[in-house]
Amino acid sequence: ENPYAREIGLCAQLGILSGDGDGQIKADRPVTATQAAKMLVAALGYGIYAENQGGYPSGYLLQAGQLRLLRGIPAREGDAFTKKDAAAMLYNALDVPVLKLVGISEKEVYEKNKNDTLKTQYLDAKDWYMGKGVVEGNRETSIAGDMRIKEGKVVISGELFAAGGTRAADYLGYRVEFVAKNPDGADGNQLVGVVRTMDNVA
To answer: Is 26 helix (H, G, I), strand (E, B) or coil?
Structure first.
């Protein structure tokens, strides 16, 4: 039995997976870029739009293109789909508003909210949050006045964070975007991830 049988079954129930022409899901076969695009379009709720544009594969590829899921990814039938491609497609999907069925009258009514995305759903589930600012201080030095910062801590735009396993301390004077969390009982917030977004501004 496939170790992911439970997850595969759930995706089939949600319409994300539909199998081949006989309805069989052959999970042991490599996934193509076209199949991955179909699954992600359906997971985001846009399967109804894709079906109205011709169904699989053309309608789903067209919808994936409209959602900009295919940036940097070859999505022709039969193309090998690599881990790098999967990461890129998921990244492209993070800020796409999720389309939801909100009612049925004479026809189905769908709605999307720009603040309801895969990214916000994931962050909410993990109780994480995103922010941006300038790294103003680390253990060695500060560019924003006289600060005494403990080992393993950094200051971003006046807010103290535990650097965790990030490289935030290396970005002194740079603008960054970050994901952080506030563990129960912790002294301040803890960085989960940090990326430098601009040249040094100090």
So the answer is: coil
Q: What is the distance between the alpha carbons of residues 72 and 43, in angstroms, rounded to a whole number?
A: 20
133-181: per-residue pLDDT in tens? 999 999 888 887 777 888 999 999 999 999 989 999 999 999 999 999 9
Q: Residue 102: helix, strand or coil by DSSP? A: strand
Question: Element (H or E) spanning 134, and its range?
Answer: strand 128-137
How far apart, in whole angstroms, are the C-alpha atoms of residue 154 and residue 138?
A: 5
Question: Rounded distance, CA 186 to CA 119, Å?
Answer: 24
Contacts from 82-85 at CB under 8 Å and sequence distance 24+?
85/33, 85/36
How many angstroms separate the Cα of 132 from the Cα of each of 15, 19, 71, 195, 201?
37, 42, 25, 10, 14
Question: For residue 136, what are its two tokens?
Answer: 């103003």
The pTM for the full model equals: 0.72
Span 73-132, pLDDT tens digits? 865 555 678 888 998 999 899 999 999 998 987 888 899 999 999 999 999 999 899 999
Q: Residue by residue, what is the 3-state secondary structure of 77-122? A: CCCECCHHHHHHHHHHHCCCEEEEEEEECCCEEEEEEEEEEHHHHH
> Within 10 A of 59 (CB to CB), how many other CB atoms are there?
18
